[in-house]
Design a protein that fits this description.
By secondary structure, this protein is α+β, with helices and mostly antiparallel strands. It contains 10 helices and 8 strands.
Length: about 325
């Protein structure tokens, strides 16, 4: 199954006129066809016929124009024509995201917040659960819209490590096939998945129930290798509360993953980003860059060819209470 990975992130302070002229120059450049050919070779892309190739070239041109104009004069992050550079934003959202926000009736539900009384002054200046052995290698959801399952598993793997001392790679496919509340490759919600894990008394290992990148025809639930006791939601729209939680464990959350800045990212993502939550990821740390920019460390599920070996740093403590790309709107974490 082909997997289209992109790396793009940018937000440059260029004027609209110069950006438009740069985009036009790129589109008229005859070498763009050669650049597209090189890109096809790098990512193993093959098209069904000449008309499809011509259509994809036009999409490639438009995405490269956006990337080049964004990168001009930007220093905190950059965008790159990654594996996603020949598909449109709508196609990308349909194939590579999959988070379904909670229904309005559930958004006000209170689950308690065990880290409410933690003092911000007492928290470490930086935390990285990767170096603390609580994060498995980056995985790849492919063309199945089950980011919600990968986000759920990432935070569950973390709390299992912290509670048992063992880091176990758990099965996203079991969630895709067996969690009847969520919709497999058509999308889902991490809170629902946590509730399924509790009822199911755990999840199998990745080895016992491997990922296929497609909805299974039947649920073949295996012996559980690890479980959780429940989950809690982080109070919405508050990065301070999220910081308290991430200081203690990896946390599942949602972002506007279809935004072009997120899609083609590299560096410390900052600037204007949407809040149309459609993609589940996991916060696995936080820190401060060399220029003083505070950031979150997020684990994604688009393979190691995207972002920074599959991870992304996103600016922290921004003016918008919802967080960059909406990251503080609906975080939650499992308990063990």
């Amino acid at each position: 199954m082909a997997s289209y990975h992109w790396v793009v992130l940018v937000l440059a302070c260029t004027c609209a006129l110069s950006g438009a002229l740069a985009a036009r120059d790129l589109a008229d450049d005859p070498s763009m066809a050669a650049r597209h050919e090189q890109w096809m070779g790098k990512y193993g892309r093959v098209y069904s016929d000449a008309p499809e190739k011509a259509r994809r070239l036009e999409v490639f041109k438009a995405n490269v124009a956006f990337i080049e104009s964004t990168n001009a004069g930007n220093s905190k992050f950059w965008l790159e024509a990654n594996q996603f550079a020949d598909i449109t934003e709508d196609e990308f959202r349909a194939i590579h995201t999959g988070y379904k926000p909670a229904a309005a009736a559930d958004k006000g539900r209170s689950t308690g917040f065990r880290y409410a009384n933690a003092s911000l002054d007492d928290l470490p200046a930086s935390v990285d659960w990767r170096t603390n052995g609580a994060v498995t290698p980056v995985k790849d959801q492919g063309q199945c819209g089950c980011c919600w399952a990968f986000s759920t598993v990432a935070s569950m793997e973390g709390i299992v490590k912290l509670s048992t001392g063992k880091l176990v790679s758990l099965s996203e496919q079991e969630l895709v096939d067996c969690d009847g509340t969520d919709k497999g490759c058509e999308g889902g919600l991490m809170d629902n998945a946590f509730e399924f894990v509790v009822k199911n008394r755990g999840l199998a290992t990745e080895a016992d129930y491997p990922y296929t990148g497609a909805d299974g025809s039947t649920c073949d639930s295996s012996t559980a290798a690890a479980t959780i006791t429940g989950h809690e939601d982080v109070p919405a729209n508050g990065e301070a509360s999220l910081l308290k939680a991430v200081a203690a464990q990896p946390v599942s959350l949602a972002v506007d993953g279809g935004d072009n800045l997120f899609r083609f990212y590299g560096g410390v993502l900052s600037g204007a980003c949407g809040t149309q939550l459609d993609h589940g990821i996991a916060a696995v740390g936080y820190g401060v860059s060399g220029d003083g920019t505070e950031f979150w460390v997020m684990k994604n599920s688009w393979g190691t060819g995207w972002g920074e070996d599959g991870f992304i740093r996103m600016e922290r403590d921004v003016a918008d209470e919802q967080g960059l790309c909406g990251l503080a709107m609906q975080p939650s974490y499992p308990m063990a």
